[in-house]
Amino acid sequence: MMVQANGIDLHYDVHGDGEPLLWLHGGMGHGDDWRFIFTTPPPGYRLIAPDLRGHGRSTGDTPTYSFRQSALDMLALLDHLEIGAVKIIGLSGGGITALHLATLQPGRISSMIVVSAPPTFPEQARSIQRGFSEAMLSDVERERMRARHQRPGQLANLYASGRAFAEGDDPSFTAEELARIGADTLIVFGDRDFLYPVGIAVDLYEKIPRAWLWVVPGGGHGPVFGAFAPAFVETAGRFLAGKLPGA
Q: Which of 31, 116, 211, 243 has the greatest number of CB atoms lying within 10 Å of its CB?
């Protein structure tokens, strides 16, 4: 399905029935990436899976990318679907978008799971972003990128926006902004993330009022795929159902 949102064509799919759950994919991904984690839509949820601005079938790709604008796009999508409050799973760049949503309109987010999403990019990440290009990917990943992002110039814009993050200021959440988040928030980080040191997860945990922290042993960036998926599915299901650890 397609909707006009803030000057772009925003593509989204809906799977399953029940409580609305917004899935926000990572950078260079697309909405269908949820299938790499969940074999079927999470039971009891209406999974809403957009292609974020400029990704997949959504238009709006440019050589720079704004996570805040992506959050505004998601608010427009929720309005279009007549959804007041929503639960969110956000991965990497999708997690940054989720943090923007939760600071822009705290009442719209009932709970969220934020995976590998920093409040600001550390130098460790920026040094990698400066050289971001197709050459950094494996042959399998390159083919996957070309299949996802097929419009002329789309991939070039996405690679350029990845490099632009190195000198950008989004994300740059302050302690005051993070303190506005009212949603129960599960922060998930791998302790072997090549982009973000695990101290970033602790920083988020300390600044978001109702936060829980899960550091995945041996997990890299986005420790929710492959062998990590079953544990994430179980933990995410319990958390979104309100079965909060230690509460």
A: 116
Instruction: List the domain range (segments joined by +) for residue 15.
Output: 2-239
How confident is the prediction for the chain on average, in pLDDT?
A: 97
The total of structural domains in the chain comes to 1
E strands present in the chain: 2-5, 8-15, 19-24, 45-50, 86-91, 109-115, 184-190, 211-216
Task: Give burial (CB, 10 Å; 0-12/13-18/19+) of 123.
Answer: exposed
Q: Give dist(CA 229, CA 63) in Å, integer.
A: 32
What predicted TM-score, i.e. pTM, was given to this entire model? 0.97
Residue 50 pLDDT > 90:
yes
In this structure, what DSSP letter does residue 83 have?
A: -
Sheet with 184-190, side-by-side order of all strands: 2-5, 8-15, 45-50, 19-24, 86-91, 109-115, 184-190, 211-216
Give dist(CA 96, CA 1) in Å, integer: 24
Task: Tell me whether residue 174 is in a domain.
Answer: yes
Q: Are 211 and 205 in contact (CB under 8 A)?
A: yes
Strands 184-190 and 109-115: parallel
> Mean of the pLDDT values across residues 172-190?
98
Pairwise CA distance, residues 125 & 134, whole Å? 17
* 162 domain residue, yes or no: yes
For residue 4, list its beta bridge partners: 9
